[in-house]
Amino acid sequence: MKTQNTLLILTLWVLLASCDKLTRFSPYDANTSHNNVNSLNISEIESQLLSNDSITFIALSDTHTDYSDLRAAVTTINEMEGISFVMVCGDITDWGLYNEFDDYYHLISRLNIPFVTLIGNHDYLSNGKTIYNKMFGPTNFYFDIGNYRMVVFDNVVWENGNQAPDFDWFQETLAVPEGMISIACYHIHPWDPQLENGYADKIKEIIENNSVILSLFGHGHDYREEEINNRRYLMVPDITMRNMAKITLANKAATVKILNF
Amino acid sequence: MRTYYIEFVIILVLISGNIFASGNKDKKLFNKIVKPDYINLQYAGNLGLGSVGVGYISENKKHNIGLSYGYLPESVNSVEVHTLSAKGAFNFKKYKLSEKTFVNAYAGTNLLFSITENTYLKFPSYYPSDYYFANAVHLAPFLGLKVGSRKNRSKFSYIELGTLDYYLFNRLKYNRTKFIDCINLCMGLSIPLNKNTFPE
């Protein structure tokens, strides 16, 4: 019997060890198998040649765990032509759990064009920031496509320990060489209470001091477009509204079209 | 959050009532509480890389409750998680593999409380009230099999197939085909502290 028990335990142990997918240590684990997803996708974007200094991309936001809507968005985008990449403006999870990050990746990676994902407040919850860093990379980053600079700025405050965003980085990164213009992407919109204590004004001030033709953000779960002090601000609708923003950059200007899917 | 507390209290009352009500004398109840019926060691299963705990078996040996502490060290996947668990289970089927070996099938749930980054029972005061639900507690239902020897009553092994309330809800809500994504396996070893409380 002793031998039988030992064999049983050994068999179970081998079974567990071989079924990595079935062995979960904690819902708060950061056991993700995908790494540096943003930088890999950005390399693909940067390798694209611009025709006539023009580029078109799609912006989605607040996908959370609304997987049927995300699946429909991916199918729609894959049927479109002339789109260079997809920008997802944060909140890809509800609770920042690695299962949610994996589910998101499983669906968004079905796109046949590159995608870039920025962090949202929900993605910070639990160990979400660690998972985001492992899976996608740093939360503040930028990339250049021709004469356009996409600046992805992490402006989450409460879920980041009530810390101020890195405004110095934002200011320095938006200071592009002459002839270039920028598009600022962040998750928390400027009208949200978590940016009330002067942070929203600081963001707008930095944007106004630099050549930013468009600011993209989510978080509001609605569509909103405003022009403030000659700068354009676009709240990308959440995925459950079955809307996406098609943005074309050409001649140093941005054209926005909201598409239903 | 209030919902989780109510669930926790209901589970404890139901299970502990069944287990402790049989000991109608105060001394017997006290002894039952301070002298657990078994200790157990577990690998994986939402409680951490490993966990240790104590358990109590009802007099009719059909129900048991347990308390465990689990730990996931940072060296495994870059995050450290401490987990406390209250477990309730009931045996619903007995199998007799041989004269020497018994197998019991059981079902139950863990109520998990975890301590790690950005995980709270009550969120800090700078959040508006009711901005988020508490994200530090979860129910983790499971089905299990315990296997042991009737002769050598010093230990028995168990394996559990479990899930998490939130994963299960999402899979039911979105009808994902890969059910495997929301289940997990764990295994453990229980050591009865006296032979009268052996499950067989």
Task: Characterize the structure shown.
The complex is a heterodimer of chains A (261) and B (200). Chain A has 261 residues and is α/β, with parallel strands linked by helices. Chain A is 31% helix and 23% strand. Chain A has a six-stranded mixed beta sheet. Chain A starts with a helix and ends with a strand. The model of chain A has no long low-confidence stretch (mean pLDDT 93). By secondary structure, chain B is an alpha+beta fold. Chain B is built from four helices and eight strands. Chain B has helices at 2-20, 26-34, 74-77, 165-174, and strands at 38-43, 50-57, 63-72, 81-96, 101-115, 137-149, 156-162, 184-192. Chain B has an eight-stranded antiparallel β-barrel with strand order 1-2-3-4-5-6-7-8. In chain B, a hairpin with a 6-residue loop joins strand 6 (137-149) and strand 7. Chain B starts with a helix and ends in an 8-residue tail after the last strand. Mean pLDDT of chain B is 84; it is low at 1-5. Classes of the chains: A alpha/beta (261), B alpha+beta (200). At the A-B interface, helix 1, helix 4 and helix 6 of A face strand 5, strand 6, helix 4 and strand 8 of B.
Short note summarizing the structure:
The complex is a heterodimer of chains A (261) and B (200). Chain A has 261 residues and is an alpha/beta fold.
Could you list some keywords that capture this structure?
heterodimer; A: 261 residues; alpha/beta; six-stranded mixed β-sheet; globular; B: 200 residues; alpha+beta; eight-stranded antiparallel barrel; 4 helices; 8 strands; 42% strand; disordered N terminus
Separation, N- and C-terminal Cα atoms of chain A? 63 Å
* Order of H and E elements of chain A: HHEHEHEHHEEHEHEEEEE
How many strand segments of chain A?
A: 11
Strand order of the largest sheet of chain B: 1-2-3-4-5-6-7-8
- Low-confidence region ranges of chain A: none
Whole-number average pLDDT of chain B? Answer: 84
Count of discrete alpha- or pi-helical segments spanning 4 or more residues of chain B: 4
**What profile does the largest beta sheet of chain B have?**
8 strands, antiparallel, barrel
Helix content of chain A: 25-40%
Cα separation of the termini of chain B: 38 Å
